[in-house]
């Protein structure tokens, strides 16, 4: 009996020593961890859980379809966040809408000085996510001095140190817009200097006429183009075909605008859409077909109307858009026949 009792005592002593050693190792391990990580462990949330959450957030952002923005090589969401969405909105609401966009996976944001107070509203809202997204801006100015002032004003308003894409805005007339901006003393001189200084990464333009777009592409090696790509303008006048063909040949990133535009207002403007100068497509199924048509034309990303509800509809529809079928194409052609195109 005495022998058994002694063995039991020794066994308990050994177990106690093991427990003490394990506790010492545990404490040493906690010392190695940062204070915040140790706090997480002791509160019951594991580091694995933290990593899993971060990974999940990234998966949510990355699941939104992306395409390559031409020769820039950048991967952009197929739906662009147009700055007009937050024009005239309260700062808190602007921040909420932008945060939601980033969370959903929207990573391409476009704005311009001509969009009212959109720059002032978008800048603070986008600042927390600036390194995660691409920001594009524009200048409507054609002369060097004015363009330089506008560039720096936009940088300040948007609270950023550079633009990923900077564009000549609204090229329509070959002489007044294209030749003036690209000629001696023109806005392009400022943009090229800004690129050398790291204020601009890629250079593009937006255009509203085929003549202006084609001339611009011949005059300068642009990285991107913004151009109307709408089924209505296509079936009414084949408005975009020659321009897109040239842009693709040059491997430019194509940003399709007016994908959900139906026609010019026929009579009094609908008060539901104060930010739209044209009649937008708001009916869900037709909007899906219209957006699908635009996205099937080789564009990298499409810019929906500036109305928040229509932008949200485009974000919802984007991931389920597929190239229209034969019947859908026939339906779109028939609808276009009864519309007045916004460009011709």
Quick description:
By secondary structure, this protein is an alpha/beta fold. It has 14 helices and twelve strands.
Map the helices and strands.
Layout: H1 2-32, H2 35-43, H3 47-62, E1 66-68, E2 75-77, E3 81-82, H4 91-104, E4 108-110, H5 118-126, E5 134-139, H6 144-157, E6 163-171, H7 174-182, H8 187-196, E7 200-207, H9 210-219, E8 224-228, H10 231-237, H11 241-249, E9 253-257, E10 261-263, E11 279-280, H12 284-295, E12 301-303, H13 308-317, H14 326-337
Parallel strand pairs: 3-4, 4-5, 5-6, 6-7, 7-8, 8-9, 9-12
Antiparallel strand pairs: 1-2, 10-11
Helix pairs in contact: 4-5, 6-8, 7-9, 9-11, 10-14
Descriptors:
344 residues, alpha/beta, TIM Barrel, 8-stranded parallel beta sheet, two-stranded antiparallel sheet, 14 helices, 12 strands
- Runs in which pLDDT lies below 50 for 5 or more consecutive residues are 1-14, 29-50
Distance between the termini: 107 Å
- Counted up, domains total 1
CATH class division: Alpha Beta
Tell me the total number of β-strands.
Answer: 12
Strand content: 15-25%
Structural class: alpha/beta
The name of the CATH architecture is: Alpha-Beta Barrel
